[in-house]
Amino acid sequence: MKNITTLAFALLLSVSIQAQNTNVTQVTKKTVTTVKDSDGTKQVVKEQNTTARQKVELENADSSTLNKDLKDSPVEMVSTTTVTNPDGTTRTVALDRSAIYQFNGSNYRLSLDPSGYVVTDSNNATVALLRATTNNSYIYRTKDSLSIVYFDINGNLVLESYDDNSDKVITRTFMRL
Q1: What's the pTM?
Q2: In a 10 Å sphere around its CB, with 0-12 CB exposed, 13-18 middle and 19+ buried, how is residue 100 labelled?
Q3: Which residues pair with 34 in a beta bridge?
């Protein structure tokens, strides 16, 4: 019994002394936005965590030389954004699409809000709200209309609206700046 315990302890100790085979870098960026309105002051906290992982591989692993060169290997980037609302609730966004977009010479800012995104114009007036759907698209809600929005492979915002008069879908693309 004593031999089994000693053997198990030695095996456990040898496994924990293994060399590190990945490089991991973690960066956290925290942004606090304070909004003053008629209800008082509210703070929205946005915390973006970025993790980069790279496997450590040797150029000539089988050679007998003491110092060996590292081989370039791909870097896996994982970024998550956590938004804490003024009421204390939190939500996690896998990919933050906040940016400035341009359409017909006008700039629009897309920024995170407690339930999705908000679109504001250059005067900081709210133009529309974006709310996520289950199929990687968003509902684009203005005062007068309801449309569907998605992001193309270039990161541009594509808005699809139905026109009652022509009985067609009108597509508008907001270019990401």
Answers
A1: 0.59
A2: middle
A3: 43
**pLDDT digits 0-9 by tens, 105-156:** 889 999 888 778 889 988 888 889 999 888 888 999 988 888 999 988 888 8
CB-CB contact of 118 with 142 (8 Å): no
For 42, other C-beta atoms within 10 Å of its C-beta total 14
What is the distance between the alpha carbons of residues 11 and 5, in angstroms, rounded to a whole number?
10
Structure-token match 């990161």, residue found? 155
Q: Are strands 75-84 and 70-71 parallel, antiparallel or unpaired?
A: unpaired
- Assigned token pair, 88: 């204390």
- Quick one: which of 112, 134, 156, 158 has its CA closest to 148? 158
Q: Say what the alpha-carbon torsion angle 27, 99, 137, 42 is, to the nearest 10 degrees.
A: 80
